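Students often ask why inverse folding is considered easier than folding. One informal answer: many sequences map to the same fold, so there is more than one right answer. In these notes we will look at a single instance of the problem. The structure comes first.
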């Protein structure tokens, strides 16, 4: 039995992360805050996004979304896209953040952070 769990843990670590399962209180887990930090550190003109991105991170970390409607209810200006993606407006709509959300496991994957121009240059369904 231990061998089977070890193999499954290797293949799907989030399902068998016992420390995470025991300490998880239903709030969202964000992968990864480093992406936010790398954005605001990438250019001095993006430093104005730091406080808003940290506030977004804290608010989402404390959320407990079971479906896209709950995310939309909390962030009324968010846009719900297909494939479990959500576009969040950051700092009064100066920046955009795209997240892919696994609602059953309460995991938010940050897929993109950028300006409106950068956002307009990407395929939101491919990032």
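Output (designed amino acids):
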């Amino acid at each position: 039995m231990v061998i089977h769990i070890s193999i499954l843990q290797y293949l799907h670590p989030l399902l068998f992360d016992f420390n995470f399962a025991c300490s998880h209180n239903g709030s969202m887990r964000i992968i990864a805050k480093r992406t936010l930090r790398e954005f605001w550190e990438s250019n001095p003109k993006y430093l104005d996004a730091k406080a808003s991105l940290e506030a977004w991170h804290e608010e989402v970390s404390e959320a407990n979304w079971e479906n896209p409607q709950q995310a939309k209810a909390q962030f009324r200006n968010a846009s719900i896209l297909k494939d479990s993606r959500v576009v969040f407006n950051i700092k009064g709509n100066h920046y955009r953040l795209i997240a892919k959300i696994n609602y059953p496991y309460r995991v938010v994957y940050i897929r993109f952070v950028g300006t409106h121009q950068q956002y307009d240059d990407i395929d939101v369904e491919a990032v």
